[in-house]
Amino acid sequence: MTKSISENITWHPGHVNRAERELLLGQKACCIWLTGLSACGKSTIAMALEQVLVKRGHAAYVLDGDNIRHGLNKNLGFSPEDRAENIRRISEVAKLFVDAGLIVITSFISPYRADRDQARSLFAPGEFIEVFVDAPIDVCAQRDPKGLYQKALRGEIKSFTGVSPDAPYEAPLSPELHLRTDVQDAASCVSTILHYLEERGYFLREAKSGT
Amino acid sequence: MTKSISENITWHPGHVNRAERELLLGQKACCIWLTGLSACGKSTIAMALEQVLVKRGHAAYVLDGDNIRHGLNKNLGFSPEDRAENIRRISEVAKLFVDAGLIVITSFISPYRADRDQARSLFAPGEFIEVFVDAPIDVCAQRDPKGLYQKALRGEIKSFTGVSPDAPYEAPLSPELHLRTDVQDAASCVSTILHYLEERGYFLREAKSGT
Question: pTM for this structure?
Answer without folding.
Answer: 0.94
